[in-house]
Structure formats: C-alpha cells, structure tokens
Design brief:
Rossmann fold; 54% helix; 5 strands; alpha/beta; five-stranded parallel sheet; disordered C terminus; elongated; 12 helices
C-alpha cells in the first residue's frame, strides 16, 4: 500500500537574490517575534557558509540561538518579577561562616528540588548572620531556573493583605501568592503583628501548606514567635506549618557581615 505521504511533493524553492532573501528573513522574524533570528541570522548564515554547514545544521544554529536568548530573557524577567531588594548570589556566600550549612546542603538547596517537593525552608539566626543573603540568593537561583518567585518582608506582606482586605480584594491577592512556586518571606519576628494582621498572614501560609514552598528568615527562635503572632495557638499553628518536612538552617550568632569586613583580604600580585 502506498503511504499517504509518498505522493506529497517538496515545496518549491524560489530563486531570490541575496538582498531579497535577507529582507524576507527580517520581515518573517519580525512577524513571528523572533528577535534573535532577526539580529543574528545573517551573521550565522555567513559563518555557516564558511564552515560549509548543511541547511539543516544552519537552521539548528539559528533556532538554538533564539531559544538560548529567550531562556536568558525569561531568567531576567523572573528575577525582576521576584522584587529582590538587592542582588545576592550563592557563589558569594562563604559557608565556612555558617557551620550548620555544609556546602553539600547548600548545593542541594540550590537545585530547587525542595521547591518542587513543596518543602519549607527556615533560616534562623541573629541579625547579620547571612539569612537575607541566603534567602535572596536561593530565591534568585530558583527564579533563574524558571520558577515563579516573590520576595517580601513580613511587614510589607501584612500591610498589603490589610489593604487588600479593606478594598475587598483579599481573595485575589491570596490567590496570587498561592500561585507562586516560592515565597521568600523575610524578617519574620521583627515586628509584633496585631491579631488581624497575624490572621491574614496565616491565610497565606495555609494556602501554600504542603503544596508550594515558603522560605522564611527570622532572628527569633520558634519559642519567641508567640510574641509576634500574639495568639499562642496561632503562633503554634504557624510554626507547625513552616517546620513540617522543612529544611531548618541555624545561621548562628556571629555577624556574617562583621566577619566578612574584618577578615583580611589576600593581596594579589600580577604574574
């Protein structure tokens, strides 16, 4: 039996000048929203001709360049959407200053597998011990891997929730936070929340329970969270949800920033 595709003929290839071909590429790339193809196709074509690449290999080069550039733009967009207050990278964090965080543990956290599993991360330690650095750096790594991330301080989040509740937009805001792959919640325990603010924050935590990760940083041990959430039962419920299957990192009491400033730098000399 003859295959249905055996009678198909290859599309006819028109003879066009080089100038017309280049113009057609520009028009098509613009229409298809392929900015990298528009910018690089001609240079890649010249390079392909010099290397005597096949038409298929040239097409692969062009499409790969577009995909790589699109991935790069997406990484930048995800990081910008996360609203980190400053740039922090895992490569810049000295794990020797945090004995409770072995390099292997940090490397595992950097993969984001805990985010995919919906596991919480809690960073506990005194001010200046690297909690926010880790929070932002891990959030940045997650965003660059394509995840939806949002950084916010506890005070800012509670204020946003109170305003949303007053405007009858609370369900919409809670749903938006629930859709995130990772919520980076900083400065838990820095301020005392009134009962209303504490209950609204609890809604966010409950909406993400065992489904989507929260990474939080606090300078107060769990035993003192009752002072933040005012209601001991609510504080206990918050701790229960944030510690179930959680990664808990103690960053200690020695200021990471202070030791970083006082550690003598090695002088480098030109070879």
């Amino acid at each position: 039996m003859t295959s249905p595709t055996s009678n198909r003929t290859a599309p006819a290839v028109r003879q066009v000048s080089e100038q017309a071909a280049q113009a057609a590429v520009m028009v098509a790339a613009t229409s298809l929203r392929l900015p990298t193809v528009r910018e690089q196709a001609i240079d890649l074509a010249r390079a392909a001709a010099k290397q005597r690449l096949s038409h298929t290999a040239f097409l692969a080069e062009v499409l790969t360049a577009e995909c790589d550039e699109r991935d790069a733009r997406q990484r930048i967009r995800r990081v910008n959407e996360a609203k980190f207050p400053r740039t922090k990278r895992l490569a810049d964090f000295d794990t020797r200053k945090v004995p409770d965080l072995p390099p292997a543990t940090l490397a595992h956290l950097a993969t984001g597998a805990w985010i995919d599993a919906g596991e919480p991360l809690v960073l506990l330690g005194d001010s200046g011990t690297g909690k926010t650095h880790l929070l932002i750096a891990l959030g940045t790594a997650a965003a660059e891997q394509g995840r939806r991330v949002r950084y916010v301080t506890t005070a800012a989040l509670v204020n946003e929730l109170v305003e949303a509740a007053d405007d009858k937009q609370l369900s919409r805001v809670v749903a938006r936070y629930a859709r995130l792959d990772l919520l980076c919640l900083d400065e838990v325990g820095y301020i005392h929340l009134d009962p209303r603010g504490a209950e609204l924050l609890f809604q966010i935590i409950t909406a993400r329970e065992e489904r989507a990760s929260i990474a939080c940083a606090s300078n107060a041990p769990f035993s003192e969270w009752g002072a933040t959430f005012t209601d001991p039962r609510l504080a206990a419920a918050v701790v229960d949800r944030l510690t179930f299957n959680a990664h808990i990192i103690q960053t200690g009491t020695t200021s990471y920033r202070l030791t970083s400033r006082t550690t003598p730098r090695k002088e480098t000399h030109p070879a």
